[in-house]
Amino acid sequence: MGIVLLLLGVLAFIPGVTTQYGDMTFANGSGSMLFAVFQMSMLMNIINIVVGIIGVLMARTAATARDFTGGAGILYLLFWIYGLVTVNMSGGANFFAFNVATVWLNFVLGIIMLGLCAVYMTRHHGGTARSQ
Q1: 26-45 pLDDT, tens digit each
Q2: Please, which of 61, 74, 102, 117 could form a disulfide with 70 given CB 3.0 to 4.6 Å?
Q3: Domains of the chain: which residue ranges?
């Protein structure tokens, strides 16, 4: 998941992969679209890159990977909730510059990460190995 987030963040800074690249702003008001679907701002790209790097670094052990997927899953579900509330608001409320597709991308990413965390917790009883 760290690699996925890192790639999303990096790809969003590449003209061609991101349409309307010249309309990208730091936050609110950004008009750039990753894959011509997901509205992205520099701030969200940076967040994706930083969280992705953290995920790659935390993938060294199963326990830290579990902690990453749990924490990042919650973070991206918070982005989803924030987006649901602000996506149709004008002005500064939609600070991250989310469109509806980006809101639901955050939901999918959050659910996948929490699902991975839950699978680990189920298989390892919360972090302790099962006795065979």
Answers
A1: 998 899 999 999 999 999 99
A2: 117
A3: 2-127
